[in-house]
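#lab-general

N.A. 3:47 PM
ok so I finally got the sequence cleaned up, no stray characters, all 119 residues accounted for. can someone with queue access submit it? mine expired

B.Y. 3:52 PM
send it over

N.A. 3:53 PM
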Amino acid sequence: MKIAITTWGNRVSPVFDAAQTLLIADIENQSIHSKKYESFKPDDIAALVSLLNREKVTALVCGAISETYATRLIENRIRMFSFITGNAMDVLECLAAHHIIKPSFMMPGCTSASATPLA
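B.Y. 4:20 PM
back already:
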């Protein structure tokens, strides 16, 4: 499966609208097989959906995101893990190994909505 994470430096971007880079990783057998970075424009949701579909990404991890953008991604069969914080590689390794995002990666005040299993 392929996962995309909006990044700001080496961290999950705290706000989707501020991110301009995606970390795209291929996860197989509980390990990261490949990863790459892609630039994107967060205000062009159609282009982002096209990029995610072209890359065969099934889930997007991000920080805060507007309901409009989240809905558009979900409508295009992209699973959302929103309101996530922390080092992007730590989050990715957690997803690869456990198929969940642990509560320690959730933004303060956010609860288990993002902790559902990936598989």
